[in-house]
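ok so i was messing around last nite and threw this chain in just to see what happens. nothing serious, just curious
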Amino acid sequence: MLKKTLLAAVVFSVTATAVQANELSGYVTASFGKAKAEVPKIVKDELKDWEFWGGNTSSDRKDTAYKINFGLKLNPYLAVELQYIDLGSANYKGRDSGSFIGGSWVDSEKFSFKSSGLGANLVGVYPVNNFSVFAKVGYHLLQTKSAYKYDYSSTSFSAYESSSKTLNQWTPSFGIGVSYAMIKDISLVAEYERYQGVADKKVNLYSQKLSFKHDIDFASIGLRYTF
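result:
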């Protein structure tokens, strides 16, 4: 709560200063790219167990991601943004199989995560002719939909377990980027961002309270319209 209050105070303060200076202009940016998720520790430990016992594992940590933000340029060097972002999904699997006298068995486990949400950024800008280099810090309320499935089946026995949880968590972010003004009011924008501590909440799994906390990196390219 204190972090959110401090961020709101900073945004309000710089906005009020710029309004008094009457230097406001706005922009909208749409960007697409690739997000890459860090493997949560509990998932990493599970995959290591599968490999230790001779099972097969797979990870799909990259996905197409996108964002749309509305910016308010307070002066040539400072802006604030409101943003919606979809960071795509990440999936992890473990699988094993075998046979015994009179039958066979198959064992599998799957984790999946999908994150998206709203937030705000404070942006520092350094313009150089048609180029602008910028750095940003932000705070986002990300919703992560997590799912877990376990399936065991054999000739004589089967077991199945599944659970899902939606985790809403305030997440800090930071990023750097560059924009190039191609024509009047239209710019090409390239960025790298990190969303830190996504899904940083304890959930019930294996009769324990475990965390799916992880970071997500997002590299994107987009178009910006200034008005």
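not much to say yet. The two ends are 34 Å apart (CA to CA).
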